[in-house]
Amino acid sequence: MREQPVGIVSFGAYIPRYRLSREVIAREWQEPPAKGEKAVASFDEDTFTMAFEAASNCLEGLDAARVRSELHSVFFASTTPPYHEKLTAGLLATALDLDRACRTADSAHTLRAATSAILSGIDAINAGAVGASLVAAADMRPAEPHTGAEISFGDGAAAVLLGAENLIAILEGHVSINDEFLGTWRRDVDPYVVQFPGGFEGKVGYPRVIHESVSALLGRLDVKPIDVTQLILYSPNPRAPQAVAKRLEMNPKNQLADALLGEVGDTGCAQVLLSLARVLETANPGDRIVVASYGDGSDALLFRVTEAIASRRNRRAVSYYLSRRRSLPSYGKYALFRKLMKTEPSEGSSSPVILWREVKQDLPLYGEKCARCGMVQFPRQRVCVACGAKDDFTDAKLARRGVVHTFTNDYLLPTPDPPTTETVVNVEGGGRVLVQMTDAGPEQVRVGLEVDLVLRKLHEGGGLKNYFWKCRPRD
Predict the structure, then answer these.
(1) Is the pLDDT at 429 greater than 90, yes or no?
(2) CA 413/CA 409 separation, integer angstroms
């Protein structure tokens, strides 16, 4: 067993660009206006693509070779994975271009899936089985129209890299409580999350279990409530965590962390990691942070921030994404994104054979470099387009940024967010790709526009999730 401290090495987050005002939702159902807005995943996003972006942000700036040599454990946490029977953590590890000798596991079916994954990752490191573990959590929970859940649920993702070296936050201890309680659930036949009416969970389940786990944690570590700098609690609504904080003898105004309910919404199992990422952006050495999740029990963890936090502040984390937003103009657009209305299917074609054959090209984005003339080309093919050399290439991993070389706006192709903008992008460092643009209107596109390449869902042809790269304007 490892004796040295373990904890967080890096962190990242992702919040979709689209925002839906709660006033728009209330107006649709002729209800009194509600405050704030929620983040809405675009039609080409799902929990995998969001988790991938959060994980990429988490690993950005780290030594790639060292990450590949030490990171042999990847966990994906979600209550809404892309597939009911297929490993998403393996898909994530492949897209991140990690070593194939990598343990992958999905943590699912509960709102505390993310903290459960963190504890599993910590256990693997403590046992000496792996040098580092990556945990990425994402959720986009289905909410029934014209309900409180539709008002409160939002979409988002966060990721943490766990290890035993270069720690920005040391795990001082943790407590887990199991509690069989039916307050919120979703069966395989339920299209939406089900909540028992009458406030039963908010009165009997949530406050009792959260208080029990945090109290046990502080008692075990002999930490006084006043010594906690930030208290991060899963928050189904703004009032519930405040009552728990007061019962724990903490000051909600000074110690209770923002759950981002007003700006992003309730992001399910990703919520506490998003709040943790937000806190770490401004944390100081010595700060003590309690993270407590909720769902069929509770996990409570205590972290102490180290001097190394200064090296990981400039991240694409919560503040970055809160500042980049695009309003959804109508409830109808949201309904199309969420497939609440039946439309004529317009899907491409694919097969498991194609996806397997092109996996290195399509997910970690590898092209090839001609050994004779140095030309980088994509997609991969047998003949060099520059010098005509045949079968004489080495792998070339393409950069994730570039410049629009040319484009066209297609108003005829069926899409939930017209038009479809097809772009040719000159990739930084070599290579040229034909990709669609996302998260942008036609007025934003121009030749010479700097863009980032992002992994998105291209279509669901053949009953499969077909992922490929798109581009979006660089901020």
Answers:
(1) yes
(2) 10
* Sign of the alpha-carbon torsion through 262, 263, 268, 269: negative
Percentages of the chain per state (helix, strand, coil), in multiples of 5 = 30, 30, 40
What average pLDDT does the segment 288-308 reach?
A: 97
What is the C-alpha to C-alpha distance for residues 138 and 75, in angstroms, rounded to an integer? 11
Q: Which residues contact 118 (CB under 8 A, 6 or more apart)?
A: 75, 135, 160, 162, 299, 301
- What pLDDT band is residue 344 in, cutting at 50, 70 and 90? low
Side chain identity, residue 142: P
Structure tokens at 379: 């997609």
Q: Is the dihedral of CA 453, 454, 455, 459 positive or negative?
A: negative
- Count of CB atoms situated within 10 Å of the CB of 11: 26
- Whole-number Cα distances in Å, 265 to 23, 27, 35, 205: 14, 18, 11, 21
Name all domains of the chain by residue range, CATH numbers in brackets: 7-337 (3.40.47.10), 352-364+399-473 (2.40.50)
C-alpha triplet 146, 149, 150: angle, nearest 5°: 50
* Length of the chain, in residues: 475
**What token pair was written down for 236?**
């189904």
H-type helices in 189-339, by residue range? 200, 206-221, 239-247, 252-255, 271-282, 318-322, 331-337
Q: pTM (2 decimals)?
A: 0.96
Q: How far apart are CA 205 and CA 200, in angstroms?
A: 7
